Amino acid sequence: MEATSTSPTFVKPPRLAPGDTVAAVSLSSGLASLFPHRYEAGKRQFEEAFGVRVVDAPHALEDDAWLRRNPEARADDLRWALTNPEVKGMISTIGGDDSVRLLPHLDPQLIRANPKVMMGFSDTTITLTAFLNAGVVAFHGPAFMTDLAENGGIVPTVEQSIRQTLFDAQPAPWQAAPSWTEEFLDWSDPANQARPRRFEANPGWRWLQGEGPVEGHVIGGSVEVLELLKGTPWWPRRELWQSAVLMLETTEEVPTPSMVERFVRNYGHQGILSEIAGMLLARPMGYTAEHIDELERRVREVLAEFGREEMPLVTGLDTGHTSPHVVVPLGCRVRVDPTSRTITSLEPAVADDDVTQRPGDRPPDR
Asked: What is the pLDDT of residues 169-181, one digit of tens each?
């Protein structure tokens, strides 16, 4: 039986266009200053691919120790980008581990009043979740120092995903990339930037369970970073979980399958697993084939524990710390269909003109 529902409605920011100015923001760490050649490669490749101009936020190139001591300055950069009329979108330089410290300095009303494209992943999950809480679509996707700085150029799967989702105002594409990699070439050696990484054939998604198609808005991000929000006022409010499709990814810290099991079980005890419509898991970085099998088994056991054996569960998506990393619009509706084994975006994630699509006037106070 097909499951459908009414999802919350989120503000969609205006689409990006050639000639626009996009701000690079370092909300999580100062690695852009430590590996400037890697960061400059990401800026250059993004500018060349999409015809935009990338500018550094005022503190984007401060060193990591300074940024760690000054979370309010990082939040100031976000405020600067949101309120600067020349800036049409924001992309993280890279992730980190403590952007949760920005939360006391973030203003959901400011985010709601100035909706713009915000893209990043990993620790940027904190900021993306703040956008969702403010009622604004956010974009779980590559950062300047990751897939945008891919050795030899942005790979076609990533370029297509960004172009279709952020520039063409088309529904985001969902398909398995033809190949993938997690090879790391030392960023401290600038010569490695010209050396292509080794990609291998992608076996595709794994459809582990599901009795029928479901629809819902996407929510989620880094499962470890979301743990930092639990119990805080910035944890997504209850209605954001209702009939949602939960997308989770693991970081380069490689949490064990048993750790992920405990994280997901907590969602069950909160009642979240009873409310969501489906679950998507990114390909985990640093896992052996045996660890992937164990992770999938443990997640399925937790879902069964909470009576959700019928819920679609898809794994192996290109939405995590391996490459390529495609764009996932958080807050936009998708259809997950186990019968046809397809995931389909049901709406564009950006407004198709300069008029922001606004379903309401104010986000809930936090």
From this structure: 999 999 999 999 9
Enclosing H/E stretch for 247: strand 245-249
Going by C-beta distance under 8 Å and a sequence separation of 6 or more, which residues neighbour residue 172?
A: 161, 164, 165, 326, 327, 328, 329, 332, 345, 349
Please state, in angstroms and as integers, the Cα–Cα distance from residue 327 to each residue in 145, 220, 290, following that order.
15, 13, 28
| pTM greater than 0.90 | yes
- C-alpha–C-alpha distance, residues 21 and 42, integer Å: 15
Please, how many CA atoms are within 13 Å of residue 72, restricted to the half-sphere of its CB? Answer: 2
pLDDT tens track for 110-144: 999 999 999 999 999 999 999 999 999 999 999 99
3-class SS of residue 68: helix
162 alpha carbon, distance to own chain's centre? 12
Q: Which of 260, 13, 248, 230 is nearest to 114 (CA)?
A: 13
Q: Domains plus CATH for the chain?
A: 21-170 (3.40.50.10740), 201-345 (3.50.30.60)
Residue 362 confidence (pLDDT): 47
Q: Is the pLDDT of residue 358 over 60?
A: no
How far apart, in Å, are the Cα atoms of 192 and each of 189, 195, 283? 6, 5, 25
278 CB-near residues (< 8 Å, 6+ apart): 210, 214, 216, 245, 246, 311, 312, 313, 314, 336
Answer whether 181's CB lies under 8 Å from 312's CB. Answer: no
pLDDT at residue 234 above 70?
yes
